[in-house]
Design brief:
Elements lengths: L3 E5 L3 H12 L2 E2 H5 L4 H9 L5 E7 L4 H4 L7 E6 L2 E13 L1 H8 L9 E15 H8 L11 E3 L2 H10 E2 L6 E2 L9 H10 L5 H8 L3 H13 L4 E3 L2 E3 L1
Parallel strand pairs: 1-4
Antiparallel strand pairs: 1-7, 2-3, 3-6, 4-5, 5-6, 8-9, 10-11
């Protein structure tokens, strides 16, 4: 059973690092300059595209870091909501890359690095719902990198959430992780999609999806031609 990883963005520095190396990503060729040969061979074999989304944790998290495996679900949280999510693709140790990407904080850096694939921006799913699903008090504050490997908590999560189609959905409210960014990700992946195809892939209500798509067309994030949406 894959773990669930909670990764809060608890500071301005964390938010800046997230924007730089997760939301934007790092050129794949750059990683080759820093990582060990055996790590690079594995990274190169993964279907990650030209840019790689990377995150790191400090040495005090090494015991939790070693629990990571490919396919673990990563939830990035901030301001009491799930802001983004993806899956662990690979994890490795590389202090020199960490210093290059993120510098240092009080003399320390984020030596233990993991790569995130299948990344999506979320539509602000409340952390209260996440806490409930995991069996925590609803006002629990997620503090620090957390790797959940307890089967009862994981089963509780998938009782309340669905991730079977790669889009995170909260069962009890029907609220999904669809957003303009996640729709744009889909349109970049596929060469044109109909409304029904987008709705199927995002599991979003018709009313909510119409609003998102109309806003995306008005904002010129994507275009609508002959009954299909294009990036």
């Amino acid at each position: 059973m894959n773990c669930i990883v909670l990764q809060p963005k608890a500071s301005e520095l964390a938010c800046n690092n997230f924007d730089k190396t997760i939301a934007t990503g790092v050129k794949k060729e750059l990683l080759q300059k820093f990582v060990e040969d055996h790590d690079w061979k594995i990274i190169e074999s993964l279907d990650l595209g030209d840019k790689v989304r990377v995150w790191g944790v400090m040495d005090n998290n090494v015991s939790k870091f070693r629990k990571l495996g490919r396919g673990d679900l990563v939830l990035f949280t901030a301001k009491n909501v799930i802001e983004a999510y993806g899956k662990v693709a690979y994890s490795f140790y590389c202090p020199i890359l960490a210093r290059f990407l993120w510098g240092q904080d009080e003399g320390k850096t984020w030596n233990y690095i993991y790569i995130v694939e299948d990344f999506h921006h979320a539509n602000d799913i409340p952390v209260k719902a996440l806490n409930k699903a995991l069996g925590y008090h609803e006002n629990n504050v997620i503090q620090g990198f957390t790797v959940i490997d307890d089967k009862s908590r994981i089963n509780g999560f998938y009782r309340d959430f669905d991730y079977s189609n790669g889009i995170l959905t909260l069962h009890d409210s029907g609220k999904t992780a669809a957003s303009l960014t996640s729709i744009l990700d889909l349109l970049n992946k596929y060469n044109g999609l109909s409304f029904e195809e987008i709705q199927s892939k995002t599991n979003t209500s018709r009313e909510e999806l119409e609003s998102l798509l109309n806003g995306g067309v008005r904002g010129k994030l994507f275009r609508f031609e002959s009954g299909r949406y294009y990036a």
